[in-house]
Amino acid sequence: MRIDDRFFMELALREAWRYQGLTYPNPAVGCALVKEGRLLAVEAHRKAGESHAEVRALLKAYEALIGREAAVDPADADAVHDFLETIPEELFRGVTAYVTLEPCAHHGRTPSCARLLARFPLHRVVIALADPVAGHGGGADTLALAGIEVEFGCCREEAQALLEPFGIWQQRAFVLFKLAQTANGRIGGGYLSGPDALRHVHRLRAAADEMIIGGGTVRADRPTLDCRFSRDPAPNLTIYSRKEDFDRTIPLFDVPDRSVEIRDDLRALLERPGFLLVEGGEGMLRALQERIDWLLLYQTPKLSPHPLSYNVDQKLEYLHTEPLGRDLLIWSRFG
Amino acid sequence: MRIDDRFFMELALREAWRYQGLTYPNPAVGCALVKEGRLLAVEAHRKAGESHAEVRALLKAYEALIGREAAVDPADADAVHDFLETIPEELFRGVTAYVTLEPCAHHGRTPSCARLLARFPLHRVVIALADPVAGHGGGADTLALAGIEVEFGCCREEAQALLEPFGIWQQRAFVLFKLAQTANGRIGGGYLSGPDALRHVHRLRAAADEMIIGGGTVRADRPTLDCRFSRDPAPNLTIYSRKEDFDRTIPLFDVPDRSVEIRDDLRALLERPGFLLVEGGEGMLRALQERIDWLLLYQTPKLSPHPLSYNVDQKLEYLHTEPLGRDLLIWSRFG
């Protein structure tokens, strides 16, 4: 194993992937801080409105260097910023920061990360990818003006994959198709995923603008489609179906505070910028095949003789895989 | 991400998994070396007769500390041992070693790792698992006698999974069933795996004592079953079949310097200590279902409408997953 810039950037990328989709409408971003070879922190942005990756990493690194926890909530961006403005600059002398995306230069819902980083006598900031949003760049300039060495391009391709949903959902709907399956690709036979995977999909449902589900799945599974495992509000729901005659005792119709629409045309929904989470089986996969951006598989640890699978001819590209409880999470691009 | 003993041990485990099976008859072992928080090296044992993980890691750490490569072949255990006996002991003062298995105390095909480690004023040796081989222990005692702090049990469960094949193949055959499939569990339609996955399976074939293949697969696929992608000698082959009337122009019969046997009873083979790599489809999976230890999936990045899959009812436990070129490698336990 080579211990070099790529090694540290890959740690930052891996941490960021844990929050892919969950940061919507923000991008998933990771940050690692290293002082003279010592890894101080690897953190990620977790949720829009909360601290950015760099801010969480600086706080964690501070705690690692002084050897105790700071009395501040790491998620509270303003509080952590304020706190980090007060700590001795010298603490971070010689630190190299690895960030998967150029630190933000603008003060949006949270203060600017580039200005915060520039406060410290860092040795180097290694950036995988420049900020792609028009008018949002300039973070690297802020750092360079403060005398910090800035380097672009380490793990650029991996960072582009991580950032792809963010690039898409600003232009049009980012369509993520979610499937839970056995290790031999069977999708029938009741609940397949373990509790960690269920909690994860419920968090994704809560993050997305809207859930789309096929009418056939609604009739066959009689699902609830809420976010009870993550204790989040239920997502708005679109049922893709030509017929409207659903049995209204199906639990999904009985979830409070969410809209359910039945549509036979998804075009308007797909053109609008946003994040759509699609669940269903072969029918839904085929219906949206040309418009699915990514596939998210929750692969459960068993082989099943259940006959229900899905027949689709589609190239994929694996982007990231990680264990999630007893299951595997496999992110891939339709391509 | 927590940066603690588990973090460094997991790096050692991950590196060791890259050589799972390939180290046969030795165990897969990984080692990470850390000096005052600075990660110096993460290395693994790669092949029986070559340097152990600790030896490779010490050499890599030496190179990291002095900033240039040493003029010694890292694979050559005796040469690296001799070299490491000559370097200044002080270089490794304060280093913590993370090893997935207790360093060997005995001089086998290679000199003792425990004695080599004990030469240096290490701060601590963190060991996931004690040496399970009767008469092989004592590595920790050697270290403790030299005044080095020794700690057992970090990531014990993960290390037990890594070491499981080694424990089995000393008693009876370790049966690894290999399958190449699409992301939706289809196994038909010609070559599925990419070049990296093919090279990996050929290296596994070369490491195993014997390959077993189902008669049906031989007739349907007319395979060669050699190790041309890794340029290793071809494995001995057992075809599991009741009938002996194979078309002798099938390429596997024409590979030089390997035996091919046709058997309708595998019991003798399965009782003998060793490492058996089984390839085939549903028939072979069902025939050996009670005797398969682990399943190795090479999951290729596509969804396929090909009808060939496998209907088996079997619980699994995922042990390790990693990308291998464009494919995914998924190690799991039958359980």
Please provide a brief summary of the model.
By secondary structure, chain A is of the alpha/beta class. Chain A contains 10 helices and 14 strands. In chain A, the strands form 2 sheets. Chain A has an 8-stranded mixed β-sheet.
> What is the rounded distance between the termini of chain A?
30 Å
Calculate Rg of chain A over CA atoms. 22 Å
Overall spatial form of chain A: elongated
Q: What assembly state would you assign to the polypeptide chains in this entry?
A: homodimer
**Helical fraction of chain A:** 25-40%
Sketch the topology of chain A as an H/E string, one letter per element.
HEEHHEHEHEHEHEHEEHEHEEEE
Q: What is the arithmetic mean of pLDDT of chain A?
A: 95
Strands of the biggest beta sheet of chain A: in what spatial order? 9-8-7-10-6-11-14-13
Number of helices of chain A: 10
Secondary-structure-based class of chain A equals alpha/beta
Description:
The structure is a homodimer of 335-residue chains. By secondary structure, chain A is an alpha/beta fold. In chain A, 28% of the residues lie in helices and 25% in strands. In chain A, the strands form 2 sheets. The first copy, chain A, has an 8-stranded mixed sheet. In chain A, a hairpin with a 2-residue loop joins strand 13 and strand 14 (327-334). In chain A, helix 2 packs across helix 3. The radius of gyration of chain A is 22 Å and the shape is elongated. Strand 13 (314-324) of chain A pairs antiparallel with strand 12 (302-303) of chain B.
